[in-house]
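Summary for the lay section of the report: proteins are chains of building blocks that fold into shapes. Here we show the chain for OprO/OprP family phosphate-selective porin and then a coded description of the shape we predicted for it.
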Amino acid sequence: MEKRHLKTKILILFIVSEILPVQAQKIEIPKFSGFINARYSWDDADDDVQGFDIRRVRISATGNLSDKVDYKFQAEYETSAKVLDAYLRWKIRPEFNLEFGECKLPYSQENLYGPTTWQTIENPAVVDQLNGYNDISGIKANGRDIGLLLYGDLFKARDGHYFVKYNAGLFNGNGINAKDDNNKKDFAGLLYFLPVSALSLTVGHYQGSYGAKGAEHVRIRTSAGAEWKDSRWTVRSEYISGNTAGQKSDGVYAFAAWKVLPIIEPVLSYDTFKPDRDAEERQTNYQVGINVFPLKNIRIQAAYTYEANKVAKDKNQVETQIFVQF
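The coded shape description reads as follows.
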């Protein structure tokens, strides 16, 4: 019995020593930041869908509890206030780290980017509808959920980049600020292969369910993507398929953005999405846009999109928006 207690004490001391090193036990004052996103939009599908709006207002707080433990809190106001991110990270070592709380789901490379870094104004349709934004399952959660995440970098190259990166975790599967409504936890994982520092190849998977206990529906997502990102070019593409309560969907997006000048970045993008492979409906978007960076904390975007629909009426859309970060 005494040996067991001794082992327990040693384990606790090890964990405490890892989380709260002696030289870093002072808790830092949180760092606050955020942004305001204002937009003007117009399309010819509905004369009422046009005009100005404040699309997003976000504020976040980040800080360190020690050399190896940090946290983030981010809230957003659109039509009502909601918590987007609220997590604690234990950075054990480059190869293995833990994160607990509410965060982005890691099964699509595009989902792990945020609106302040998107090259396009809108998410591709397949990301919007198979990644928990306006998911066809009915879950609207800004691509986030609550759970426990493992992540890390493996096999360091001579130039400093890692050949393999991974994110994998268990989540409620019910969206932001929501308890699970069944006893099953959902898995989400994303694996990166980086043969060179600028090129990443990804495969991702989500395996879960939604709905009340005893009336669950399957929710499965699989992705495969690639990205080239250097000082001037960002080229990214991804294929995502889904099975939502037996309804099979898929889609793909691709875009290229080129900084012709440090402050000017033209963008060409294409995406197509079929919500039900057994039905005729399909949405395909063709977009040309430009991003302008007049000041360090200001970004202006403008884009024209032609939306071709297999069943519904085609439409033309013009959007412009500004981000002011602080």
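Put simply, here is one thing we learned. The longest helix spans residues 2-19.
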